[in-house]
Amino acid sequence: MGTPIWLWLLFLGLVGVLLAFDLGVLNRKEHEIGVAESLKLSAFYITLGVLFGGFVWYQMGSQAAAEYMTAFVVEKTLAMDNVFVIALIFATLSIPRRYQHRVLFWGILGVILLRGLMIGLGATLVAEYGWILYIFAGFLILTGIKMLFVGDKEHDMADNPILKFLRRRMPLTDELHGHSFIVKQPDPKTGRIRRFATPLLLALVMIEIADVIFAVDSVPAVFAITTNPYIVYTSNIFAILGLRALFFALAAIIHRFEYLKQALAVLLIFIGSKVFLADLMGMEKFPPAISLGITFAILGAGVAYSLWRTKGQDAKELTGK
């Protein structure tokens, strides 16, 4: 795929070490992750993701590094919408905070595999059929316009058809059994001992399905930034690793980023449009450094406007005024 195998092995080894350190050291004992711990972990992963961008610069050049950082920032922002859905899943299934990290940890393993398959498929299609990149770009523009002018429907997880289907099809316990995903207990109908899924496993499956749905937007977005599978994959995984850590702090203040979705819509339109603009301007590729600057400007404006418009909101909710 144009990238030395040792770079792939180095990255996968780093991810393996991080996950082992997370589960075996930081969270060896299950506990409720507070805001302070969440922010520290998130800062660690964001720093690591940025440092990896420096490594990409050293190994692959400034253009590749700019593409990586743009993809990293875009993926991190796109994944923020996933936080809201994950919070809804946990709330609907009554998953206590002390078990949520366990679900998210095993969820990231599934994400690593699923994103790898989707990115591998995308890279193959782009390599074999170059014109498919224009389909990705057009899809992003249409998605951005829909988000900007139509908006998203409110999520009602209790009435989600996928959740209803899984509840009908999966042998499921009514209550949690500690941190277990699967337990053995007598079947109410036959009396025989059989395996039952717990709500923890149902939450894990729902989170994996949600990630696949979100990847339909995020994977084309990154391919519109770069067609290098190594940059696409590493930026995806680093963004998701950090978001998992940030979830416990972000879920409580996600309402403060009320207007970030509009900024995200503009960003998707820009990312899709620059594929066509590069052709119209006779360029092989839209300048990565300019693309990174515009990305930061759009998202920075969205965050600043959101924080300004929602300032004092928490105080109003507490006082009822």
Automatic annotation (TrEMBL):
List the keywords (alphabetical): Membrane, Transmembrane, Transmembrane helix
In terms of InterPro entries, this protein maps to:
Integral_membrane_TerC, Integral_membrane_TerC_rswitch
* Record localization: Membrane
Its recorded name reads: TerC/Alx family metal homeostasis membrane protein
Membrane association type? Multi-pass membrane protein
**Main location class:** membrane
Q: Which Pfam families match?
A: TerC (PF03741)
Cellular component per GO, a single term: membrane
Question: Which organism is this entry from?
Answer: Paracoccus shanxieyensis
Q: Where are the transmembrane segments?
A: 6-26, 38-58, 78-96, 103-125, 131-149, 200-224, 230-251, 263-283, 289-308
**Which family does the similarity line name?**
Belongs to the TerC family.
